[in-house]
Amino acid sequence: MKIKLWTILFFSICLSLLGKNGQAQQYITGKLLDNTTSQPIRGASITIIAVKDSSKVQVPTDILGRFSSSTLPNGDYLVSTQPMGYSMDLRRVKLIGQTIDLMFKLTNAEIVLDEINISSSSIQVKGDTLEFDTKKYITQDFADADELVKQIPGVEIDENGNVKAQGEPVNKIIIDGREFFSTDPKVALKNLPADVIAKIQIIDDKTEQAKFSGFDDGKRMKVINIVTKPDKRKSYFGKLSGGAGPDRKYAVNTQVTKMNPKRQYSIDINTNNVNQPNGFATRGNTRGRTGQGVTTRFNAGFNYLDRFFDDRMDFNANYTYNYTDNNIVSQNKTEYTAGNRANQINNQDQLNSTYGNNHALSIRANWKIDSIQKLDFQPNFSYQSNDRNTSSTGNTLLNLEEMLNSSDRRNKSFGENFNWGGDLTYMRRLNKPGRTISFNFNGSFNSNKSHAENFALNSYYKEGLFSRVDTVNNRNYTMGDNNGFRSKIAYTEMLGKYSRLQGNYTFRNTARYSDRRTYEFLAETGQLGELKNRLSNEFRNDFVYHSGGVSYLFNKKDSIRFQIGLDYQTASQVNDKLFPNILTTKSRFNSLLPNLNFQYNFNKDTRVEFRYNAKTNTPSIEQLQDFIDNQNPLRISSGNPDLKQEYDHNLVVQFRSINKGSGRSFTSDIIADFIEHKISNTIFTTDSAFTIAAEVILGPGGQYIRPENFNGVYNLKWQNSLGYRLEPWKLNFNLNNNLYFNQNYTLLNLEKVNAQTYGLSQRVGVNTAFSKDVIIGLDYNGNIAFSKNSASEKSNYSVYKHTIGNSIALTLLKTWTLNSTFNYLYNGSILNSPSTTSLLWNVSIGKKLFKRRNAEINLTVFDLFNDNKNINQQVNDLWVRISQSNAITRYAILSFTYHIRGLGGKGEAKTRR
Fold first, then answer.
1. 117 & 255 share domain
2. I need a surface site. Which of 107, 273, 780, 851 has the fewest CB within 10 A?
3. What is the residue-averaged pLDDT of the chain?
4. Residues 6+ apart with CB under 8 A from 358
5. Burial of 23 by CB count in 10 Å (0-12 exposed, 13-18 middle, 19+ buried)?
6. Is residue 171 part of a domain?
């Protein structure tokens, strides 16, 4: 009922505001095209000057080359544009109660000095965009896009395929301004060939509402836009590959894309049993450790892009299916460092088998209705199921000698999760320049159910001698849902040439429900026994908040941007415990949420930015439920219905400097988080049996965990990213370092513990391409992490990890290829265990086939020295851990790959030179 009432009220306000502004409006609109290729010119600036008073308005072109001004009064105007690399065009128009639509067809402009053509720098700065011309970067024939992107200064792709630019994670990759196959960078870069790429743009992307309204709130998302070559935008490409080897190893990849400026189809199917999540690398250029355990997987995806309504609507549909069968055998050794758990060491051997299915469908329709209206609709659907079997044995020792407990556990579970939802945004320009209104509606609906079988046999010891044994044998059944609705309205008003004002109001309602029933299992009859009330719970949480505020923006282009705002948020929470007893608790939170953003541009290439914002985080339903979970009798937990929401102060100071001549980019960030009411765990441990609740006993060496709120928590980080290119040697350098310090608190046996973790990571990467026949890369990664706490006798604990990697790609005698990737890993000594090393060397030898050399046979050997190990070291504020799991080791695959190319509409295989 609450949702219905607020929805009706919200729509009433929206309609009344629109009604007030339904009068006639006039604009200058148009489109920019390349005169040679007829392709749209994106990101160009259009200047509109009023002849009467010389007042000036600048508007950008979108991905279709279109532009539209705000509402303009009658009069004479000069409209000019000169995108980089094009000649200038100037028009004079007269507005008399009508909208004027212009068409600019621009010709390329060449600068010729003494008969020598002077080309521009390989790097350009365009506002929040860094653009790199890829002509100076070389890849092998038929290489994937990631082989090119990782050469760009300031960009790094780690051994697991994660992409960072200027030290920040890249959230998505788009192609020619449109989403390509999947916004996941790992997938996008493996489905696009390098030889179709003209430019790489690294964008600090604004929100859709900010781009439409002109009110820049400073919120950014790191995006890479790949600009394709004009003659390759009507093409098809892909690859078909398959291979097999001894021990029934196999890998099959199919990737095909057909595209033109309007429509695009993509399909991606891959399956393998060699731990390759995004398809098998036939040339052996896999650098990662291939993950934990041994995995068989099948992935399929289909992407469809199109344009409708005279190219004013961009439509994107993406479907993916994933199946995984993962088997992990692991050994874990954990040393506790605080309180009466200090000098306790827990050893555990575990076998985990997981079968998972995942379906996901997402659609986006971005419709520019006309010059003043825009609609963006994004529905989504997903379904996941997981079947998991786990068995483990372990023990806890005191001072490496005295036995405290031993355990033998088995767990079998199955779960399903269904999600669907959507996001709808409508934006409209009103009857005055800078006056806009936008409405956003977001809904999400989630339902889940699971059941689990739990068995545990635990033996406890006193002074090293056997004391008693406990058995847990139960079945639990859980079902729940999480539904939410959010609506937001934002209104902007221009106050002057450089100033704007924005007001906003948000309403959100979230309803969460969980019902968990735990029954004793009678092994002698195979039937369920009595219901365990203390291990069961039925719980409902309703969370409602209203938030409203105002922001002021001063934005003098290419000089200063200053934005300050304040929101007031009032929230109410109702927790209804329905079983095993009935209890209702209510709480209310009132918060002031200031935000501040200041950017100063020293010049077009150098700037400093300061950002501050406050936000709240609500506890999850798992943290709020107070039933006892004893699936692991040595790690018993429960929730806390009295938790408050977190209040987070986030501060970022960023400095960025670009040298277009040398191609150098440098970014430095200082990031700080200060958190009030931080949700952290309180821990109770015991050296003897302790009764937590009826029939729930915590044995020696075990721990009982419950969340609480703490103040005084903060996290500090300083990260730097430097990328540059030495042109004479064709060397690309990337350097990244990261220093961090985290201050946390916990409650250990009612004693407040001050816990700190801090460390340093450093990455250095160098790559060079003398030609497409000789490409070499070298990188180093070093990580040092420390931990200390006030309840530990030892001053601090530390872990060290160093990795050296090398890649070589050679083309010999025009048709033979040799590819090698080398990865050396060193883990320092920890927990009285010696240091460990691992050498992973992958080699591939190939022969190109056919006249166009667009097919090849490769013999790939993974882990040539049979030395692959999965070893992971972790340091926490309360413990230090070393883990080792099984890994896929040496194998060989003989594969055949056929590269599909139909570029420029002629079907010719044109490769990067």
1. no
2. 851
3. 87
4. 320, 321, 322, 323, 382, 383, 384
5. exposed
6. yes
Compute the distance between CA of residue 793 and CA of residue 804 in angstroms, rounded to an integer.
Answer: 35
Of the pLDDT bands very low, low, confident and very high (cuts 50, 70, 90), residue 284 is low
Residue 216 located in a structural domain = yes
The pair of structure tokens assigned to 174 is 């788009």
Phi, psi of 53 (to 5 degrees): -130, 5
Q: What is the pLDDT of residues 596-619, one digit of tens each?
A: 999 999 988 899 999 999 999 999
HSE (side-chain half, CA atoms, 13 Å) at 739 = 5
Q: Who contacts 394 (Cβ-Cβ below 8 Å, separation ≥6)?
A: 346, 347, 348, 349, 406, 407, 634
Strand bridging mode 664-676 / 713-726: antiparallel
> What pLDDT does 572 receive?
95
Using CA atoms, how far apart are residues 437 and 102, in angstroms rounded to an integer? 26
CB neighbours of 672 closer than 8 A, spacing ≥ 6? 649, 650, 651, 652, 714, 715, 716, 717
Radius of gyration of the chain (CA): 30
Whether residues 435 and 410 fall in one domain: yes
Three-state DSSP class for residue 563: strand
If asked whether residues 299 and 370 sit together in one domain, one would say yes
Burial of 212 (0-12, 13-18, 19+ CB in 10 A): buried
| Structural domains of the chain, count | 3
pLDDT at residue 112 greater than cutoff 50? no
> What is the mean predicted confidence (pLDDT) over 335-359?
88
Name the percent of the chain in helix, strand, coil, to the closest 5. 5, 65, 25
Residue 911: inside a domain: no
Q: What is the token pair recorded at 279?
A: 């398809």
Token pair of 171 as six digits: 């959230």
- Domain with residue 10: its CATH number is 2.60.40.10
User: Which two structure tokens, joined as six digits, stand for 45?
Assistant: 């600036």
Domain with 118 in it: what CATH number?
A: 2.170.130.10
| Residue span of the structural domain in which 98 resides | 2-111
CB 70 within 8 A of CB 432: yes
What pLDDT does residue 678 have? 96
Structure tokens at 136: 């100076």
Residue 119 and residue 206 in one domain = yes
> 452: domain CATH number?
2.40.170.20
Is there a contact between 235 and 265 (Cβ–Cβ < 8 Å)?
Answer: no
Q: Cis peptide leading into 594, omega within 30 of 0?
A: no
153-157, 339-343, 727-731, 806-810, range with the lowest pLDDT: 339-343
Q: Per-residue pLDDT averaged across 721-732, rounded?
A: 86
Same domain (yes/no): 190, 128:
yes
Distance of alpha carbon 689 from alpha carbon 194, whole angstroms: 64
Question: Which one of 201, 229, 257 terminates a domain?
Answer: 229
Tokens of 857: 């046979």
- Specify whether 97 is located in the same domain as 117: no
Q: How far apart are CA 64 and CA 141, in angstroms?
A: 31
Alpha-carbon distance 904 to 913, whole Å? 16
Burial class from Cβ neighbours inside 10 Å (0-12, 13-18, 19+) for residue 389 reads middle
Of the candidates 97, 75, 170, 154, the residue with the CA atom closest to the CA atom of residue 122 = 154
- Among 592, 595, 596, smallest CA distance to 568 is for 592
Q: What pLDDT, on a 0 to 100 scale, did the predictor assign at position 457? A: 94
Q: What is the pTM of this model?
A: 0.84
Do 104 and 118 lie in one domain? The reply is: no
Q: How far apart are CA 636 and CA 470, in angstroms?
A: 14
Query: What mean pLDDT comes out for the span 258-286?
Result: 83
In this structure, the answer to whether residues 383 and 261 fall within a common structural domain is yes
Residue 908 predicted with pLDDT over 50: no
> What was the pLDDT predicted at 282?
64
* Span 534-546, average pLDDT: 94
Domain boundary (229, 259, 288) is at: 229
Q: What is the pLDDT of residue 608?
A: 96
